Amino acid sequence: LSENCSNDCNSLDISSDGKYLVAGDYSYLRTFELSSTTDTYSQKWYVNFNRYLRDVDISADGQFIAAITGENNDYRGLHYFSIDSSTPLWEGKPTPESNWYSVSMSDNGRVIAGTRDYAQTSYVYSWEYASNVFLKQFSPANNSLVNTDVSLMWTAAGEDAKDWVYDVYMDTNANPTTRVAENTIYRNYSATSLTAGTRYYWKVVTKEDDDVVQTSEIWTFKIQQSPTISLSSPLINFTQYHNKVTFVWSGSENLRYLVYLGTKSDELAAQSDLWQTSTSLEVAGLNTKTTYYFKVGAFD
């Protein structure tokens, strides 16, 4: 994402899974959503407060947004949005008016705290828009490719969250039944020595006094195999009678590539500015009667 600010980019926050991003751009509140197909962010909506926007925050699941407009105008206060609409769900403008400075929100978006300079006051709000029982996985990202050792992480929020414990289920079944952690008070679990090339599924169950409070979604990840790459064309020590060559290769899953070329084996130059996912590249403008060396770099 590359976005120019209209005047002053003063605040930025992102949901725990990276799907949603919110930015304070002087008087504009802008929201962005990550595309699962292009792996890029695009603007979802924006709203112009016509005055200075001091701070923004987004809930862990990206469903709720809080923004504070700060100084010397009729819009001073706290504004609460759903990710799906630029129309506020609620606005707080306590009297007497004064400048606001910062805002922070609980993971589930149910509790918001804001500060302003009137009597050096902090304000805390709670409302029914967000669920009082909240459980959200955030790492590794759903359907991701990861290394052999994995740290499963989640967040939770609720009035009784301090009394909650968690069971973690993980195995190779689409509906995992193997309990790998029981009654843990921590919101993470380290899974080690997993099998390369294998897909795993996992979920978290929140409990209080042995009663199930909430069960998370089932997420999945795959363990990365050792990267491999094989060159197909041109052949080694091959004589080419044109001034352009198409390099072709194959590689293991989810790799990105960069072709290097030069007339000395220890002085190769990258042939493109960006790493690519495709497994071929045409290079033109080569000199005749010249020996070239090449290699293909890869990373995951």
Automatic annotation (TrEMBL):
Q: Which organism is it from?
A: marine metagenome
The record ties this protein, via InterPro entries, to: FN3_sf (IPR036116), Ig-like_fold (IPR013783), Quino_amine_DH_bsu (IPR011044), WD40/YVTN_repeat-like_dom_sf (IPR015943)
User: Which ranges of the sequence are coiled-coil?
Assistant: none
Record's protein name? Fibronectin type-III domain-containing protein
